[in-house]
Please model this.
Amino acid sequence: MSAPILRDRWLTPAGGLVYHLRALRHRPLWRAYSDRLAGWLQAWNPPCRELVLIGPSAGWTLPAAFLAGFGQVHVLEPDPLARRLLGRRFADTKLVFDRLDCLCDRDGPARLAGMTELQRFLERGFDTFQAMRGAQPFLDAVVEREDAFAAEQFAAQV
Model:
């Protein structure tokens, strides 16, 4: 199955031309929020050099210093104007604009993390246990065999 791609959204309440004009005009109203967010992000010490932003909407409240700390920032943004504005606002940051729509179905987060095969394996296991109409006899057999194996191993060491 091919990965779903983001559709461009030009005019929505959460993005598009009108939204960004309002965001720019009312930016001073966000100052307290932006300052708190900057403090929180500054205190966060992520263990990796890559970041994924989902719908950052031009990053109006994101501090440049935060994004500069990453070697690469993957951006999933359906608003074409937001992509353009984000690229201009953070020109010194390595931004990679991906088109994967990772929130359109239940496999999206696994696809985003590159763990599609693991997701399929877990789903098959879940489906198998569900089809057993009660996995307790199976689980009891596993526990019994593991206990017997462990007892044999400990007895051999004594």
Observations:
- The first strand starts at residue 11 and ends at 12.
- Helices lie at 17-25, 31-43, 64-68, 80-89, 108-113, 116-131, 136-157.
- The two ends are 55 Å apart (CA to CA).
